[in-house]
Write a structure and sequence with these properties.
nine-stranded mixed β-sheet; Rossmann fold; 3 domains; binds xanthosine-5'-monophosphate; single chain; EC 6.3.5.2; globular
Length: about 525
């Protein structure tokens, strides 16, 4: 793999994704990993990420010069560029001048393996205080900015290069091309990491672990569990049984989509448990968001446990549980480097202690966009693989106030209109998701038809995001918003007002509860 050394900024995951987009498998390792341990992983190349430290700070993470003796190709980015310069005998200075945000880069190295043929001036994304003042011996300096005389360097013979800016962010022009040139041209790597490759590899891994044992999987209706289950099914067929809990908090048509489209596409054995009455009973009169979540979580476990016990009884035992855990979760929980398909005897998602399955987590090494590609490769329809995220507690946390059947019907109708109009306008791919929220405890006066009404507002919360950690409100076209508003107030009896949430995250979260 290409190893991305994480110096503690949020960019390491983005770099790892970009490396994979260039067709080469990558993994993230902490900067605290000793160099011999890192080299034992036989990296095809190493990328040193940016980070929040100054190389002068006490305990600042550094690069062990032994890395450069190993003749592994290395690319330094931002802090990684400076740490690399320092480790190779160059000099890093505190210039006292910070460059932050879009900056003009002037390319001077017309022969540069990294930058040749690109426009002479590029807008790139910068974020640094210190600067490389002297390049290491044998390195050609190939670009500068107004405040940074050394903004890129390379030593092609030693397959080493680096840039002061962030080529991984979309704001850096030709950033992906620069990364690609390092990987393909300087490091000499072949781009052969594809979804088809993942599929074959994972199917084999699952077969060898599961053998002839039985497996179950809870389907949430979301992309991750749908793809994980389809993959396991491809590997072990009807040894897998899926459970879909209808908690009554689903959106319009969701259950049918799972029962019909998903089963048709995969041939998976599916058990649906209709537990809506039980969930609504337990939620009656509850308004506090955390309490709602706890109740929904608890009822979900009860239901799933009962279904699992039934299946185990019918199948003569079930040993494995499939989980759709993704690579970002693995990295964030500090767990391994993602190569293991299996983590045994471990409870996740709040499943109780005595429900002991061994976990099969076939998506542990993948990012969300790769899961989507894999799903398509497995033959899942676009409506399933391109779905926007939807929270486990469902509409239960999108009704502000107590949840009941009538309010659910109102929200479901409004939400269906929003989804329909957004799809028709072709904006689905532009946004991350668009929660539709019913302010059930708020009333507003309106006039509809001949009379005064006293109804409820619906909130639209369209957001753009890369990973849901931060988000911005999406600038949807006004005429689309007008159509949505006109239809909701016209077609949904209880609603006489539609409002738009224009808050970024932070300070707002994506969901309202
Ligand atoms: P927030 O509201 O925290 O949401 O900005 C971030 C992302 O997580 C989703 N979300 C959930 N997903 N169970 C889930 O499976 C939950 O309880 C839950 N709460 C929020 C939310 O839709 C957004 O994509």
């Amino acid at each position: 793999p290409v190893l991305v050394v994480d110096f503690g900024a949020q960019y390491a995951q983005l770099i790892a994704r970009r490396v994979r987009e260039a067709g080469i498998y990558s993994e993230i390792v902490p900067s605290s990993m000793p160099v011999d341990e890192l080299l034992a992983k036989q990296p095809a190349a190493v990328v040193l990420s940016g980070g929040p430290s100054s190389v002068y700070a006490e305990n600042a993470p550094s690069v062990d010069p032994a890395l450069f003796d190993a003749e592994v190709p290395v690319f330094g980015i931002c802090y990684g560029f400076q740490a690399m310069a320092q480790a190779l005998g160059g000099r890093v200075d505190r210039t006292g001048r910070r460059e932050y945000g879009a900056t003009g880069l002037t390319v001077t190295g017309t022969e540069s393996a990294l930058l040749h043929g690109l426009p002479e001036s590029l807008d790139v994304w910068m974020s640094h205080g210190d600067s490389v003042a002297e390049a290491p011996e044998g390195f050609a300096v190939t670009a500068h900015t107004p405040d940074t005389p050394i903004a890129a360097f390379e030593n092609v013979d030693r397959r080493l290069a680096g840039v002061q800016y962030h080529p991984e962010v979309v704001h850096s022009q030709h950033g992906q091309e620069v990364l690609r040139r390092f990987l393909h041209d300087i490091a000499g790597l072949k781009p052969d990491w594809t979804p088809g490759h993942i599929l074959t590899e994972q199917v084999e891994a699952i077969r060898s672990v599961v053998g002839t044992e039985k497996v179950i999987c809870g389907l949430s209706g979301g992309v991750d569990s749908a793809v994980a289950a389809a993959l396991v099914h491809r590997a072990v067929g009807d040894q897998l049984t899926c459970v879909f809990v209808d908690h009554g908090l689903l959106r319009q048509g969701e259950r049918e989509q799972v029962e019909r489209d998903y089963v048709a596409a995969t041939g998976i054995r599916l058990v649906t448990v209709d537990a809506s009455a039980q969930f609504l009973g337990a939620l009656a009169g509850v308004t506090d968001p955390e309490t709602k979540r706890k109740i929904i979580g608890r009822e979900f476990i009860r239901t799933f446990e009962a279904a699992a016990a039934d299946i185990a009884a019918a199948e003569g035992g079930v040993r494995f549980l499939v989980q759709g855990t993704l690579y970002p979760d693995v990295v964030e929980s500090g767990g391994g480097t993602g190569t293991a398909t299996i983590k045994s005897h471990h409870n996740v998602g709040g499943l109780p202690e005595d429900l002991t399955f061994e976990l099969v987590e076939p998506l542990r090494t993948l990012f969300k966009d790769e899961v989507r590609l894999l799903g398509a490769e497995l033959g899942l329809p676009p409506e399933i693989v391109q779905r926007h995220p939807f929270p486990g507690p469902g509409l239960g946390i999108r009704i502000i106030g107590a949840v009941d059947a009538e309010r659910l019907a109102t929200l479901r109708a409004a939400d269906a209109i929003v989804r329909e109009e957004m799809t028709a306008a072709g904006v689905d791919a532009e946004i991350w998701q668009c929660p539709v929220v019913l302010l059930a405890d708020v009333r507003s006066v309106g006039v509809q038809g001949d009379g005064r009404t006293y109804g409820h507002p619906i909130v639209l919360r369209p957001v753009s995001s890369e990973d849901a950690m931060t988000a911005d409100w999406s600038r949807l076209p006004y005429d689309l918003l007008a159509r949505i508003s006109g239809r909701i107030t016209g077609e949904v009896a209880e609603v006489n007002r539609v409002v738009l949430d224009v808050t970024s995250k932070p300070p707002g979260t994506i969901e309202w509860e």
